[in-house]
Design goal:
This protein is of the alpha/beta class and 325 residues long. The protein is 35% helix and 16% strand. Bound molecules: iron/sulfur cluster (SF4).
Amino acid sequence: MDEGYRDLLARQQYRLCGDHAAVKLCHWLKESLVRGRHCYKQDFYGIESHRCLQITPAINECSHRCSFCWRVQDSDFEVTDWMEPREMLDSLIAHQRLLISGFKGDPRCSGEMFEEACDPNQVAISLAGEPITYPHLSELLRECRRRGMTTFLVTNGTYPERLEALDVLPTQTYVTVAAPDEETYRAVCRPKIPDGWERLMRTLEILPSLGTRTVIRHTLVKGLNMGREEGYAKLDRIADPYLIEPKGYVFVGASRQRLSLASMPSFGEIRSFSERLGEMVGMEVLKEREDSRVLLLGRRGAETDVRRLAGTPSESERKNAKTVP
Ligand code: SF4
C-alpha cells in the first residue's frame, strides 16, 4: 500500500491491520451512543448499531469503480501477507475500542451502552474493497460465529467462484445489483474486468442454492439506473432473494466528484420503484426508513430479525461461549 493512500485512509479515520484490513467507526454507531439514533438495519434486522464492527478484510481490491461509491477508490494492489482471521479480528476489535474510548467520559453516552460497544456482536463486512477476495473469509466467518457475532457480507457479485467456495456462510449476504441490463451496468458500475456482467449473472444464479439469507440491494441513482423495473425484476427472479432493499443514492464522499445532488432520487420515487418492483416479484413493502432512503421488500410474513434466525446465539449464550480476551 503506498504511503499516500495509507495517510489518506488514516485521515479518514480508517484504522488498518496489515496492509489489507481496516475498521472505521460507522456514523450510526456514534449516533447510537450519544443521540440514541440507530441505523435502518437495526429496525429492519434487529442488529445493534452501537455494537457493530464495520470492517473490510480486503481494502486493496475491487473489480468495480461504481459512480455512486462514497469510498476512496485507489488503485488495486497486491497483498502478499494476509493476516490470519483470529489475529485480524482481535486487532480490528482493539482498534475499535480505541476509536470509541473517547465516548467513555461523554455524559450523553451511558456506561452500559459504552460497555456493550466495547463488545461488538455484529460485523458489517462492507467497509471498502471486495471483502470476498480475502483468502481466509470462511475462517473469519467461522471465528465470528464462534464468538457469537452476526455477520453481514456485501459483495458486488463479480466473484461467484469465491462465493460458491465459502464453507461457512454469513448470517446475511448482500449482492448489489445496480443496473437492470448490461449497458447500464457498464455505465454505472464501470467494471475493471471484461466479464463483470457475466460474473454477476453467475452469482445471481447460485444465490438460491447458497443456503444463507440473501438480500439484493438496488442502489438507485436518478437519471442513471432508475425506471425499467421489469429489467430488475427479471434479475431478482433469477436470484430469488429472501429480501430486496431498494436504496436511494446519497450525495456523499468521493461520489460527489462524479454525481450531483440531482442524482439523489426522492423517497417518493424510491417507494414507487419499490412498489412496482414488488408487484412484479411477488413481494411487498415490509419496512421503510425515509431518512436512510431505503425500503425493505419481502414476502408477507417473512421473518426479518436476524436474532430469531436458527444458529444466532442469545446474549447469554454469547457470554457463555465467548472467549474473546
Ligand atoms: S450495520 Fe452498517 S449502517 Fe448499521 S451500524 Fe453497522 S456499519 Fe453502520
